[in-house]
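Title: Comparing notes on inverse folding

I've been comparing how different people in this forum approach sequence design from structure. To keep things fair, I'm posting one structure and asking everyone to reply with a full sequence. Here's the target:
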């Protein structure tokens, strides 16, 4: 299988898909034809033509034809996904609801739908509809029991320590990133690298394998390579395939030392404060205090603490003192050891290390 990774193929996606062994990839990202059903050509108020998506690869005879196509490639993608793998599909209002329907019928387990809100969308020149300012991504695991990858802490860090929401404000592909030849776009629906960066960072780890059945000009493979993931992609159009090859040759990979993601807190063993007392690391009657030693509380035998008339968990009492809805007692409360004032979280970290060794 090693010869399959870190390469791309030029050919019919379904035909090549059928040759890939079962359970090969950790992640699939699919940007299929949208079947946009464009009728007459679109024009601006000055009567100049709008370069919309009217490529032949996006045209299907009927909805039935499109549905059969989608069911075929989604079935193959499920087969080649590892048991704990997941898939992302992206589309517009033309096709995303059909894709969601087929995903559920094939027993994928839907995890999220994400709105990619474009901060620079194409205007609606005719003024007959709302400006189409977003596309929708569906993230699904292989089945309901899949232990899929989700780098929650890394996404939170990427978002200034706030939970990453399901609406993403990102620009469309433009400027130097947009591939052009003789002033014309090489591909009408080239996706921005920022979108794939977030998807791959969120749902894979360093060294994982990423597959794109409709590679286009190679954005998925390019970002996967930058992030130290193995990649494979299929593209039918020779022009797009050659553009993707060129992009991949020019990729500057991020150094391996900087590719690790923050481990999720929930992946660590949970250690209650009471365990420190049960194990004799802290004892009932000992004093805890804030880092300025302005407030102090006594440890009780049941793992609660008491400050004046307030008693409860280390988190509840700290929140009461601060007048806040919540507080992380592990970092608020400190203890004295040989004259050094240290947060009680240090004691928990020692237990983490002991339990994992």
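Reply #1:
Here's my take.
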């Amino acid at each position: 299988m090693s010869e399959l990774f870190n390469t791309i193929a030029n050919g019919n996606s379904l035909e090549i898909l059928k040759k890939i062994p079962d359970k090969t990839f950790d992640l699939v990202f699919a940007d299929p034809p949208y079947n946009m059903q464009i009728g007459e050509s679109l024009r601006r108020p000055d009567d100049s033509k709008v370069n919309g998506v009217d490529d032949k690869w996006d045209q299907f005879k009927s909805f039935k034809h499109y549905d059969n196509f989608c069911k075929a490639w989604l079935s193959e993608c499920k087969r080649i996904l590892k048991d704990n793998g997941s898939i992302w599909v992206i589309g517009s209002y033309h096709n995303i609801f059909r894709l969601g329907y087929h995903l559920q019928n094939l027993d994928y387990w839907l995890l999220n739908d994400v709105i990619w809100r474009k901060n620079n969308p194409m205007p609606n020149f005719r003024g007959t509809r709302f400006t189409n300012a977003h596309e929708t991504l569906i993230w699904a695991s292989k089945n309901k029991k899949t232990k899929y990858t989700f780098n929650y802490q890394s996404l939170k860090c990427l978002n200034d320590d706030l939970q990453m929401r399901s609406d993403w404000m990102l620009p469309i592909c433009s400027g130097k990133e947009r591939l052009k030849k003789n002033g014309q776009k090489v591909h009408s629906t080239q996706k921005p690298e920022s979108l794939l960066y977030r998807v791959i960072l969120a749902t894979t780890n360093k060294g994982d394998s990423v597959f794109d059945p409709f590679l286009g000009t190679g954005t998925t493979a390019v970002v996967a390579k930058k992030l130290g993931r193995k990649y494979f992609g299929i593209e039918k159009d020779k022009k797009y395939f050659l553009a993707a090859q060129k992009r991949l040759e020019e990729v500057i990979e991020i150094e391996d030392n900087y590719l690790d993601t923050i481990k999720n807190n929930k992946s660590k063993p949970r250690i209650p404060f009471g365990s420190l007392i049960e194990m004799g690391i802290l004892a009932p009657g000992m004093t805890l205090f804030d880092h300025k030693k302005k407030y102090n509380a006594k440890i009780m035998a049941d793992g609660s603490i008491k400050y004046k008339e307030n008693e409860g968990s280390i988190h509840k009492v700290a929140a009461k003192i601060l007048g806040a809805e919540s507080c992380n007692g592990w970092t608020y409360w400190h203890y004295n050891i040989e004259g050094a004032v240290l947060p009680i979280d240090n004691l928990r970290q020692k237990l983490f290390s002991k339990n994992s060794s």
